[in-house]
Amino acid sequence: MSDKHLSSQFDADLNLASSKVLEMGGLVESQIVNAMIALNNFDLDMCEQVIAAEDRLNQMEVEIDEECSNIIARRQPAARDLRLLIAISKTITNLERAGDEAEKIAKRTKRLMEDGASRQINIAEIKLSGEMAVSILRRALDAFARLDTVAAAQIVRDDKAIDEEFRAFVRKLISYMTEDPRSISVGLDFLFIAKAIERIGDHAKNIAEFIIYIVKGTDVRHKSRDALEREALS
Which one, of 212, 203, 222, lies nearest residue 24 by Cα? Predict the structure, then answer.
């Protein structure tokens, strides 16, 4: 078998693994969108749909991880190819966890409905942060497909806005529960939902950081936003 043929097959293996990541990402994105629809409409059927789809995400994570391990064992890649496979493994872990957060939103929404909770609390910040989380994850997946470090750096910056919405909602929630202790149980459920959305933004940010690692060869986790941006744009 010629070296050229081996190289072509290796490229095909890498492309297939990357495409499976994007497929998994699309499913996670749908999960988050559906979880927010369930919350906004108190839709029990949609809650069940989100919860039921979690098994498929778990299966995809295992399948893609196994494929990455097989490629490493067969091809013994180096440099950027090895970084890509490592980043794929870490990316699907973050996608699976983002799916877990969508499932949490659905389960908490279901619990709110079963408890007969009414819309006593204005959840405008939750709705906005949910829309932002879907957007930032979609852009992270697009940046991954193109290995776009400039877009990745912007995603890391934009995650800060989701954190700010979360903090604003927590402040409002604390004030509301202080004024009306009867709302504490419902308030805590909404707090868990808000936290789940914030964590989805964190997972999208992590994926953006892996893009920079693939292209630049530098681990930018735990670096300041300014330092990360300098690395991404250098």
Answer: 203
Residue-range definition of the domain harbouring residue 166: 3-233
- If one counts the domains in the chain, the total is 1
Whether the model clears a pTM of 0.85, i.e. scores above it, the answer is: yes
Phi, psi (rounded to 5 degrees) for 217? 75, 15
**Residue 192's CATH number:** 1.20.58.220
What are the angstrom distances between the C-alpha of 20 and each of 64, 155, 229? 7, 22, 28
Residue with tokens 């097959």: 9
pLDDT tens per residue across span 30-47: 999 999 999 999 999 999
Per-residue exposure over 62-86, b if at least 16 CB sit within 10 Å of its own CB, e if not: eebbebbeebeeebebeeebebbbb
Spatial separation of the C-alpha atoms in residues 66 and 86, rounded to whole Å: 12
- Euclidean distance between CA atoms 107 and 226, whole angstroms: 37
Query: What digits encode the pLDDT tens for the residues 126-158?
Result: 999 999 999 999 999 999 999 999 999 999 989
